[in-house]
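Possible race condition, two jobs.
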Amino acid sequence: MAVNINTVYQTVLYILNKEQRGYITPSEFNSLATQVQDEIFQSYFPDGNQVNRQNQNNTQNDTEFFNIFKNIDYKLYPFENELTFTYSVNSSYWQYLNPNNDPNFKTIYLIGDIISNYDSDSVTGLPFSVNTTAQSSITQLASKSDYNKIIRSKLTAPTRQYPLCFKTNFTNALALKVFPLPDSLLVNCLARPSLPIWGFEPGALGQYLYSPSSSVNFELDVSEQNNIVINILKYCGIIVNDPTIIQAAAQEAQQTSINEKS
């Protein structure tokens, strides 16, 4: 369940205005919201690694609703996507493209399993025969230099059962080169969260009126609402030049982090 952006904005404004400490505009709020959402999203990875080390040392609670590693993993579920890549004959690369400006287009953050699907009965490009049984196979991701070495060796040459690929940047987009060439390619990815937007319409008095139709909620789990508010307030203190806000928000954020990791 996502975090409602209007709830966060109104909470931030209430806290700022309660002590007459200032005001932030929708454009300022949207910029801070994007920054904070990205910071929280990025924090899942080092936090997950830290907790996983505790798991390996048998020091991590493993009850149903109090396993921190599982909780962090759960927060990443909304960003997991199985994306279909498109093959370009001209470039010989597989790419995830957005030619029609699809609003649901995902920006890839990390690549997981790469699945090569082989439907046809022929494989070209090798001077010797290989197994051509139709199948779906997990594809090993290698560096470009390793890829070039491996496909040239008869002993280590990729097959349909053990395909190989490397990733590169082609026309400012992520591209994969896979060998043997599959008929289709599915890639399990972690996508970046969509940019949060507090949309508005001008009121009769020139005030900002919330517009749900032009707004985009935070894609983070609802459990992150408190963290979002606290961290936005921290940056608000910089904008309105109030060190007491920065200090209070920073202390609250630090205590929350300690509680979550202890």
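Job #2 (started ~2 s after job #1):
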Amino acid sequence: MARARRARRSGQALVEAALTLPLTVFLVLGSIQLFLMQQARIMAEYAAMRAVRAGSVNFGNCRAMTHAAIGALLPTFTATDTPAKLAAAFSARSGNSYGGQTNTGGTPLNGPIVWIFRENPVPGPAITTVEEFDTFQSTSDQQRLEVRLVFWYPLRIPFADWVMTRIFLAHYGLQTYLNSNPLNEAQTASWPGGFQTSNLSQYAHPTVAAEFSSRASAGEYVYPIQATYSMRMMTPAKPQFFQTQNCPPLP
């Protein structure tokens, strides 16, 4: 009798462990991923500053701004602990691509690393070809380079990246959550499309939400981290660098 009771208790403990282990694993891995995302957010703010600084001394040149942002963000998703590794990482990604890098599931990361929206200055007659470094004549808005940077941060922790991507999509109402309970297939979540508790387009450009949803559908586990920065331009904006309002690949 006592042996049977011990066997039942042992079986009960095994079942309880099987039920709680996935949640425990996710809590550990999810916490690590959140800490890494916090680091990436801090680096995105730094990258926005570096991008604006590069543009302010290079007539608003998007190439210089993009390179400065990518260089600042490299440590968040690839090895840059030696000068040789830093040079190799930047060389592979200087075209604003992930250079063949894949996410934890092996899916290639095909989209750009950063998007740079230039809020100011705007193309117009105030943008001049005259290079007056000290007192160039333009309005205060045309003298201010203001940038909204979106860093498509690749989630790096296995399992947590998949779960958190779906949490974010449901949070922003970009995907109806209808997944089944892996522990009980008879239980299916049924969150309606309007369930979201936040709207990504309220603080980001509307195209960000569409891009986030598109990348997630392709199996790319990335999260759009946004940062803004502004600075007075040290060199006047040149027309050739403002054929479009935003930096490529944005229109």
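The first strand starts at residue 114 and ends at 120.
Logs attached separately.
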